[in-house]
Each structure stands twice: as C-alpha cells, then as structure tokens.
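Narrative summary of target 7.
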Amino acid sequence: MNTSPNPLERAQSALRRGGTVHCMGIGGVGVAGLARLLAARGMRVTGCDTARNRLTDSLEASGIAVALGHGPAHVAPPPDWLVRTAAVPATHPEVRAALAAAVPVSARGEALAAVVATARGVAVCGTHGKTTTTTMAAQAFRAAGLDPSFCIGGEVDILGGVAGTGTSDWLVVEADESDGTLALYAPEIAIVTNVDFDHMEHFEDVAAFHAVFESVVARTRGTVCYGRDDEVATRIAGRRAGAVGFGLDPASDVRGEARRVDGTAQEFDVVAFGGRLGRARLPVPGRHNVLNALGAIAAALAAGASPGPVLDSLAGFRPARRRLEPFLDRGGIRVFSDYAHHPAEIRALLDAVREGFAFDRLVAVFQPHRYTRTRALGPQFPPAFRGVDRLVLAPVYAASEAPLPGGTSDDLLAEFRRQGGVPVEPAGSLEAAWAALRSDLRPGDLLLVIGAGDVERIAAWAAAGL
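Modeled conformation, tokenized:
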C-alpha cells in the first residue's frame, strides 16, 4: 500500500492496484462521472450520498450500488480505495473509519488527476466556461474521429451523461480549481479559458488562486491553449513555449472573426495561424460561447484533428443542463434556468439573452452561492444585473458554510440599494421568491432563474404552475 503523503502518488498507486473503490458524494456530477470512468477501468465501484437523484438512479441502473447517507458502515469490510467529494471533510467519520482500516483516501480531484495521467488527457480549466468548453471539445474530438472518453461537471444529454468511454486513449475532462487539486494535473493538452478570482472558501488570496493555474500550465506535457482575451490567462500561460492563444483578440493564434448574431444562433469565421479554416455556426447566443468554442477548436487542432469536422460539430452543440436551459414558453412568458453565480458569468448571461431574445421585461431571481463569495464580490454583483427590470434576491445558498458578516443576502441587498440602478426586492425563501414572481409575470416577460444552488426549483415550479 502506498503511504506517500503526496496525494497524486497515493491516488495513482490505488488506481494501479485496482479492486474496489467506494465514492462518497456519488450523487454529484463530479464524483458520478469519476465513478463511471473507474468502473470502465474494471474497478468495482460503490458509492453513497445524502439523497438519491437522477445520477444515482442512472448509476444503479448500470450496476453501481449506491447507499443512502454517509457512515462508517460503508467501509466495513474495507474497500481498496475511498474517494470523497470536496463537500465531505477529511474529518468525517466514514473517512476516519477508512483511514483506521489503512484504506487510502483521495479527494475527487486527486483521483481524476491520477486517471488523466494514464491517458492522453485534455484538461479544461478556468474560472468560467469549463463545462461548456469541455462539452464542445468532447463533441469536436468525437466528430473528428478521435473517439475520446470524457468526464464533465454537468449533465450533457447529447454526450450520454456526465461521463463516457471511447475507444481511443484520449480523455477530455473538466478540471476543477475550487479545491486546489487542479495543481496536480499533468495533461497532454490544457485549455485555460480565463482566470478570475473565485472560491474564497479555499484560497486565502489571489496569488494562491493563480498558483494552481501556473502549476497545471507548467505540468502540461504538450500544448497549452489559453484565452487570449483574458489578461490573467495570457499572463500565466502566454509565456510558455508553443502556447496557443485563442479568442476574438486580433493577436490570437486561433481567432474568431466576422461574428454575426442570427437570433439565438451565431456564426463566425475561424482563422488559425494566419489561415482561414472556415465558418462555424453555434446554435446558442453569447460572445462568451464563441470564446468557449475557439478553445475547443484550438485543443482539437493541437490533437491533430481535421478542421472541417471540428467546425461542423459546433452546429450540433447542445449545452449541459442549467446553461440557459429553457423550462417554459407558454402564454407569452418564457423561463430559463442558468448556473451563473459569479458576477462575470451573470454579466455574460445577460448579454447573451439581450442579443438572442426579444422581450418586453427582463425579470430575474438570483440565489447567491456561498457567503464567502458574496462577501468578497458583493460590490461586483449590482453592475452585473444592470438592465434587469425586476430582480428578486433569494437567501444565500450556504453550500455547508456558516453565515459570514458581510456575506448574507441582506448585505448584498444593501449593496444593490447603495449603488442603485437595479429594481431589487428581497425574499425570505425560494417559496416566497416564487410567490412574488408568479403574481407579477405577464406576457412578454422573460424570467431568468440564476444561481448554482437549488434555485432551479423555481424554474420547475414555473413550468408546472404557469
């Protein structure tokens, strides 16, 4: 057994040894996807979570046993390896029981980094756009005949779920920076979409946040593709020999030009290293989605893919759940749900909606995510919502955090009112938020349900009750 304090070495040793792996938090998209990859490698996979959902039902249907709740009984008899979601602390009784039985324990990101090291890994990282870019890259690789395996932090119906296995040794993954495990990845190709400070619950300052991106860039075995429009990503990745900048910036190696919006779709020319590859069409709005697509194109070209099938694949792109996901279009009222929870993401979302849709009123409900993020970025939220005709502010989704002074919804409401310009009103619960919205929605309204917590329940209520 590997007792190395190096978490990557520990995960790699457990992966090589095989046998049984127990996954805590298997109902989350990240662990569910990893569980499927490990099962495909021949490991016997079990899991547990606090509640059942679509993902646990799907895993059980494929033969992976899922227990309800967390507890030491799940590691008796001991598995050969235990993988835990970042939401489960290392001090949890189930984890302690595994350690007492000399079972190696890995965080989900450590385990996925170990899997990537065994493949021709494509790691998609960055503060914004990871899930969409990973989805686009997986579709592009498929279309080009590279047939990759994939693991994505979102439910992607067109790809068959959160993870899947292909026949080649390519593996396209969404590499999450939130817990610092991004620093362990050593992919063949890295895509750095952008670097915008986040996850204050884990990183003590901006320098520590930037360091994980610097690490993955340094550890990449082949080509680093980076968002040329983003100043920090360019500073971190642009100096690396052979790095490929992508974007709308004229200095980009893989560049989008002549962008044209066509309702909820858009088209743009793709120029790579001075040569025009063709015109691409995306069936989703938003400048940010063009940047995501260019990142996927750059990675596919670095993998040796032919440009034609790669560009063609974008026309069939379908986003993951909760990326401007439509829930209702009835009686002149439309409702969409979106995962945006950082001011930059909210701003990009609203820009895309204004570009792609016609409406009389733009109405939104926002559930802030984490007290740490709300406190750190509070002043940035009001400008992101400029132009919204009515905003209902729900309580912060804690994500296991304790309330922090300066990070509550009341604090954020005070910031909105201090800055002015956005008609905002508080709601004490999601139920209260829906009641306030429901009584006022009328034909011509477009309602956005925004946030990374359980606020999507409001979109489901709207679909069922309007």
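The chain is about 35% helix and 25% strand.
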